């Protein structure tokens, strides 16, 4: 730095406002320390760059670029001032409300030699206004940018010096089904987790936005197709590794580069979306199987005993079906019902599922809702809707004192009567926080003791004598 520039820079540091100097072409000559702080650019790296690249001034409400107006100073010789509704977009993507004034720098002969730009960050006096400004270009759930801001940034960054620009589209598969079956709170947690992973993997200069309920877009300046694919694959791998709190949730993704600044964002988005759509149609992403897996994995995460016990109940159900010489299809159905009979518990409070003591009356009433909740979940899936009535009835009793409908005798579907016996027996031989497991002899005796009241008497006898091989038990 020349001696006069050193003196000038030292002088500028004594000024409380940020200062930028340009030459006659509007290129940076000097940034004060305060200007470095607010713009995110170091003086050395900003040197000779266009003013509009370093000082990116936007309309706070519309994201319209305002920085270009500063260059009018070079032609008109008149000052340009923005006192409100303007934000400075820093190199890192942070937005700050600022007040700025640009004036011409003239020599002794009154010839314009450049611009002196003085600006200052505004202290927010109105917190509600600050929040409104933030929400105008951010997604309120994730804190990422919204679609409107993203599209404006594409226009701003779509210049020759940033080519190639790649657009990456990431879509959370079956999010609507997840929200419908597990609740909006669970769905929102998934959205926020995916957003965190994307932010973690992206570079500072990348622009990330949530553009719809399940879709994210990433704008990648100076990034070719291969580099974009590497990034998206990293995101997919990390999501798969995290399993989103035990949810094995697939993502669909697609990337599209552009090497022509004439290309509109709609065109690039369409190309990326078509690649994303093709991934959704692969065999890997069969909706019903994936959704059942997602929900059951979530239930196993909430209740760690459930996975082992469901497998045991499923096995008992199949053995009863085989003993009764049911068809292969019916036995397959029994196996599946045994596995998913408690799927409705995924919607229950974890505190009830994990309570070490016996449930209170109100808690038991809540627990008894799980057959109806499971029925609702399965009815949304074509592949499993035919099993929903069996899940609904698996806590009915032979004497009509069960729930939720109080069905009696053979009003209860055969499959539900079989599951009721397998489920009750397995519960008795399993430990609970409030009691020890019963031995198999005692549990078998309980099944026979409750035959004709809780259980179908014929099925109870078949189970104990033929499946368990306890013919000596009276």
Condensed summary:
The chain has 474 residues and is α+β, with helices and mostly antiparallel strands.
How do the helices and strands line up, and which of them pair or pack?
Blueprint: H1 3-13, E1 18-22, E2 28-31, H2 33-39, H3 43-46, H4 51-54, E3 56-59, H5 72-76, E4 80-82, E5 86-89, E6 95-106, E7 112-121, H6 127-137, H7 147-157, E8 165-172, H8 175-182, H9 184-201, E9 207-210, E10 215-220, H10 225-246, E11 251-258, H11 265-280, H12 287-302, H13 306-323, H14 328-340, H15 350-353, H16 361-367, H17 370-379, H18 388-392, H19 414-428, H20 440-449, H21 457-467
Antiparallel strand pairs: 1-2, 1-7, 3-5, 4-6, 5-6, 6-7, 8-10, 8-11, 9-10
Pfam families: GGDEF (PF00990), HD_5 (PF13487), PAS (PF00989)
Organism: Dehalobacter restrictus
Protein name: Diguanylate cyclase
Question: What does the model show?
Answer:
The protein is α+β, with helices and mostly antiparallel strands and 474 residues long. It folds into three domains: 133 residues, 2-Layer Sandwich (Beta-Lactamase); 143 residues, Reverse transcriptase/Diguanylate cyclase domain (Alpha-Beta Plaits, 2-Layer Sandwich), CATH 3.30.70; 178 residues, Hypothetical protein af1432. Helix content is 48%, strand content 14%. The chain has 21 helices and eleven strands. Strands 1, 2, 3, 4, 5, 6 and 7 form a seven-stranded antiparallel beta sheet that branches. The longest helix is centred in the middle third of the chain and has 22 residues. About 2% of the residues have low confidence. InterPro entries: GGDEF_dom, HD/PDEase_dom, HD_GYP_dom, Nucleotide_cyclase, PAS, PAS-like_dom_sf, PAS_fold, Rev_trsase/Diguanyl_cyclase. Pfam families: GGDEF, HD_5, PAS. It comes from Dehalobacter restrictus.
